[in-house]
């Protein structure tokens, strides 16, 4: 069975969301390729170690909910996803952002190869 582009992105991002919601920075980072470019709301990093450090510093209790808005197949093993994400916090308002990801099949896994957040409004 062949997965649709949206299913591929959702499968990867479901794993990401589960790890974010569990405040498990190492598990979040395990969803990223070794050479992944990561741009959250602070300076960018390359690779899983930077991702883990970013999410280690995140507020405990922060959760993420997302919706896939668009996908595009860039190559056989590369899919672009455009998402809306709401990060909810225990003691401050929800932060809504746009998220662009590029997921790439590496071996038998799809991993995030590029992650770019931008704020709405």
Compact summary:
The chain is of the alpha+beta class. The protein has 3 helices and 6 strands; from the N terminus they run ααββαββββ.
Q: How would you characterize the overall build of this protein?
A:
- This is DUF4440 domain-containing protein.
- The protein has 121 residues and is α+β, with helices and mostly antiparallel strands.
- It has a single domain, classed as Roll (Nuclear Transport Factor 2, Chain: A).
- It is 26% helix and 47% strand.
- The protein is built from 3 helices and 6 strands, in the order H-H-E-E-H-E-E-E-E.
- The chain has a 6-stranded mixed beta sheet, with helices on one face.
- The radius of gyration is 14 Å and the shape is globular.
- The termini are far apart.
Indicate the topology.
Layout (H helix, E strand, L loop, with lengths): L4 H17 L3 H5 L2 E8 L5 E2 L1 H9 L6 E13 L2 E11 L6 E12 L2 E11 L2
Parallel strand pairs: 1-6
Antiparallel strand pairs: 1-2, 3-4, 4-5, 5-6
Number of helices: 3
CATH class: Alpha Beta
Strand order of the largest sheet: 2-1-6-5-4-3
Major β-sheet, in short?
6 strands, mixed
Question: What does the overall shape look like?
Answer: globular
Q: H/E element string?
A: HHEEHEEEE
Number of domains: 1
The proportion of residues in beta strands is over 45%
**Broad structural category:** alpha+beta
Protein traits:
3 helices; Nuclear Transport Factor 2, Chain: A; six-stranded mixed β-sheet; alpha+beta; 121 residues
């Amino acid at each position: 069975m062949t997965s649709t582009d949206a299913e591929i992105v959702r499968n990867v991002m479901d794993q990401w969301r589960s790890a974010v919601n569990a405040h498990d920075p190492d598990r979040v980072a395990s969803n990223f390729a070794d050479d992944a470019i990561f741009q959250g709301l602070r300076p960018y990093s390359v690779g899983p170690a930077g991702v883990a450090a970013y999410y280690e510093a995140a507020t405990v209790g922060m959760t993420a909910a997302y919706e896939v808005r668009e996908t595009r197949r860039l190559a056989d093993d590369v899919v672009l996803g455009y998402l809306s994400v709401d990060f909810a916090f225990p003691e401050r308002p929800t932060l809504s952002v746009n998220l662009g990801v590029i997921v790439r099949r590496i071996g038998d896994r799809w991993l995030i190869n590029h992650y770019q957040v931008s704020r709405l409004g």
